[in-house]
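The protein record quoted in full:
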Amino acid sequence: MRFYFKIQMKLYIITTITFIFILNSCTPNFESLSIKEADTETLLKNIEPNDKVTYWQLERVLSDSKVLFSKGEKPAEIIISNAKYDFNGFFVGCEPMFCAYRITYFENGRWGTVRTEQELKKFIDTVENVSEAFLIGKINDYMIDIKSDFGNGFIELKNGFKLNMMKYEICPESKESFTFFVTKNGTIENLKNNGFYMKSKDCIVY
């Protein structure tokens, strides 16, 4: 009796392990962005706006405005989107200094400017690629961690992208992992908090 019981238990264990292996092999693995791919400028350069936008350029706002990238047929006359002392832009950073990004575009015969994160979301329009999906995450205050898969991962699905991103705090320094789904229309769904994967007692001081 014990002999048959042991055989049944072995068969059960083998069957369970096989099932788990098959299940895991059917589950797509997260891919990670490289350092270059995760760079904010690279993400922004990969935007695919709607077809009505015939020309657009990415600008960096510092002490003045510098064009980093342009795409499309440039109109004969271009209206400079920023006045000399206009420092309004999105994704403000470069602590302890200041910098930001801005987009100037030509659509339906008119010039437009993207100065805020919400205007950037509207400019992205339909999420067509993984760069745009990560930008939606950044617009919603999530960040990419190039040093960890907990904050840097994606799976392309039929109706959008499943992402791993993180939230970062400087005091005390910590990184908290989140997984969520970015739909084609740029909304975030199925948000899951994976917890902290890095915590420190130290504060980052600029």
Summary: Confidence is low (pLDDT under 50) at residues 11-27. The first strand starts at residue 53 and ends at 61. Residues 50-124 form one domain.
